[in-house]
Amino acid sequence: MPTQTPILKQGDYLIVSLQDAVSDTDLAALWRTLVERVGQQRIRGVVIDVSALDVIDSFACRTLTQVAQALGLRGAEAIIVGIQPDVAFSMVQLGLSVRDVRTMLDPEEAVEYLDRVTRHGPHAGRA
Amino acid sequence: MQNGKLDGVAELTAADVVAHLKRVREELSTQWVEEMMAKGVLVGMTPDETAYESAVIYDICVGCMETGRYDGAERYAAQMAQRGVLAGMTPAQILAGMLTLRDVFGRSIFDEYGDDQERLSQALRLYEPVANQILAIVALAFVQERESIVRQQQEAIRELSTPALQIRPGLLMLPIIGLFDSARARQLTEQLLQAIRASRARAVVIDITGVPAVDSQVANHLLQTVDACGLMGARVVLTGMSPEIAQTIVTIGVDLSRIRTVADLQTGIEEADRWLGYVVTRADPVL
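^ Those are the sequences you sent over. The predicted structure of the assembly is below.
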C-alpha cells in the first residue's frame, strides 16, 4: 500500500506535508491531485511543508518551482514552508533557489500571510 | 691527477672551514659585537648578555655547517621570535645583527683562503649555502610568529562576536565585526538561521559597520546568507555600508541588487519596522 501524503484543507487553503521517503511516482501523483483540487474546490493558497526533508537538491527545487507555477496558473498561490536551517545553507551554497516562489518559516506564518492577502483581494469578505 | 685534487693539494672540506671558524671564534665574535654596536643594532642588552647571546649564536651557526642540520638554528630562531624581541631589539635590528655576522664570517673566509683562488672558491661554496639558509630561517621565524599572532587575534574576535539579537518580535539584528572569511561566514550564517527559526523572525538587519573591507568573496558570502534567510521566510536589510565599501563593490562588479542595503543602522531598522508593520510613535518623555 503506497504511503499517501495527507492533504489538509483549512478554509480556502490546502496544507500538504511532504514526507522524506516518498517515491517519485507518489510525488507526481500528489502534484497532479493538488493541481486538480485547486480548481475543483476554489483553493486560494497551497502550503507545501518541507520540514521533514533533510535534503533539497536541484531536482527537488525544479519540481517545487514547476508545481508552484502550475498551481499559480490555476489561481492558487503556493508557499513553501519549513526549509530547515542546514538545508537552507546547503541550498545557497549550491546556488539552488526556488525563485519566484514565496518561502516562509512554517504553516502558521503562511496561513497568516494568505489571510492578509486574500482579505484585500477582489473577493475579500467572501464567506 | 685524481678527481678534485689540484697540484696534489686535497680538496677543502666543510670540516676544514668549521675548524678554522672554531679557531677564530674569540676574535670573530668580538669583532661581530663591535660592528653591531657601531651600527647601533645592540639595544637594551648588558655587555654580559651580549657576550653570552653572541657566543650561542656563533656556535649554532658553526654547528649547522658542521652537522649539515638546521634544527638547532630553527629552534633558536623560533625562541628569538617568540621572546618578542631579544630584550628590546626589533626584528629589523636582529636581522641586521645576523647580516653583520654573515659579513664577519665571509671576510674571515676571504682572509684565510684568499691567497688561493681555488681554495677560496671551495670555501665559499661550502659556506654560502649555510649562511643563506640560516638567514632565511631567522627571517621566516619572525614571519611565522607574526602570522601566529594574527591568527590568535582573529580567534579572539570570533569569540567576542555577538550572536543575532532580537530587537522586537519578528526582528533580528546581526552586527558583524572584523574580518569576514569563509569559516566565519559559515558560522555566522548557521547561527543566524537557527535564530530565525527560534524567534520566528521575518526581518533581519545585518550591520557591517564593523567590517573593514569587502572583497568579492565576502560579497558572495553576504549574498548566500541573505538567500538562506529568504528560504526561511526572513527578509534582510544590510546596513552600515560605508562609502569606501560601496565604491569597492561597484568597482569589483558584484551585483548586490537583490539585497536591500542602506547606509546606517537607524534607517535599516526603520525599513524593517515598515516591513513588519511596526509604527513607532513618540509620547511624552519620561526623562
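Chain B has two domains: 14-151, 165-276. Chain B has ten helices and five strands.

Shout if you want it in another format.
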